[in-house]
Amino acid sequence: MRKWFVLGLLFVLGMRMHGQGLPLDPALGITTTPLYDGATPGGDQGNPPTLTVFVPQPGHGTGSAVVIAPGGAYLGLASNLEGRQVADWFAARGVTAFVLKYRLGAQNAYPIPLEDAQRAIRLVRSYAAKYGYGENRVGIVGFSAGGHLAAAAATLYDLPLPVGTDAVDHLSARPDFVVLGYPWLDAMEPPVGKEITYCGLLTAIPRDQCAAYAAPYTPKLHVTSQTPTTFIYSTTDDGTVPVRASVEFYEAMLKAGAPVEMHLFRHGPHGTGLGKGDASLDQWPVLLEQWMRDQGLLTK
């Protein structure tokens, strides 16, 4: 009985440490912190958003940081495949990585996920001195639905959303660079054939209101010459998210004169993370690393 009491007490203490932003595992240096101080503004209060940081080895930081937005159709989060594994990859290359748990579902419809992404970028920027990277070297990485969120953050950083009273919310929400992995960039567009849509999945939005509701959050419509430098990876025969939308976003960036690089692989299913051991797809992180070196993001 005493054994189970002690284990239960340790669990409660661990949850309290988790909520206070203390290390989940001191040996691994993994820390989770609430995205907002105090009550979470708006939306569903039952599952507050957080950031979990993965730090490089001491002395091996490059001066860059990323916010990572996992995918999951805005209904869940692939926080292992598109969160922790990606964060480990960045941290191993000297980039401080923050995995974002953003709010989801019909109770947290847009713009709430975008508010969380903007807050995350600002909060990571505020941590620059603490973790040893530059305030002007904060990027966002997103996969699938998280790729849509990252692209929205990159093109709608000036959108007037609710701003809190703390100093963090007055920092810039513009990411300095963007990485999109098989992004669901047509999430907010009317469906073509049997394609899935944000409004279709979140049935709380009436079908006859979808077009007017969604257009403000369609990234390709808001690309300008100030859109941050962007890297895009996708596969031509992705059966879940059509590559057409990524190509259109790429073309919009070209037209605007915004810096962009895109890599399309001939074959590959949706949701491959860093490649999942596929001999061909495992090469896309190699291309990403080279792109980051070209941007000066992997050297202090």
Q: How many DSSP helices?
A: 9
List low-confidence stretches.
Answer: 1-20
The strands making up the biggest β-sheet line up spatially as: 1-2-3-5-4-6-7-8-9
Mean pLDDT: 88
The total strand number stands at 9
What is the H/E string? Answer: HEEEEHEHHEHEHHEHEH
Largest sheet: 9 strands, mixed
Number of structural domains: 1
Quick structural gist:
With 300 residues, this protein is of the alpha/beta class. It has a single domain (29-294), classed as Alpha/Beta hydrolase fold, catalytic domain (Rossmann fold). Helix content is 32%, strand content 17%.
Note the main attributes of this structure:
9-stranded mixed β-sheet; 9 helices; 300 residues; alpha/beta; Rossmann fold; 32% helix; disordered N terminus; globular; 17% strand
Describe what you observe in this structure.
With 300 residues, the chain is of the alpha/beta class. It has a single domain (29-294), classed as Rossmann fold (3-Layer(aba) Sandwich). The protein is built from nine helices and nine strands. It has helices spanning 2-19, 80-92, 112-126, 128-131, 145-155, 198-201, 210-214, 243-256, 284-294, and strands at 23-25, 30-34, 50-54, 64-69, 95-101, 138-143, 177-181, 229-235, 260-265. A nine-stranded mixed sheet has the order 1-2-3-5-4-6-7-8-9, with helices on both faces. Strand 6 (138-143), helix 5 and strand 7 (177-181) form a beta-alpha-beta unit. Helix 3 (112-126) packs across helix 5 (145-155). It is globular, with a radius of gyration of 19 Å. It starts with a helix and ends in a 6-residue tail after the last helix. Mean pLDDT is 88; it is low at 1-20.
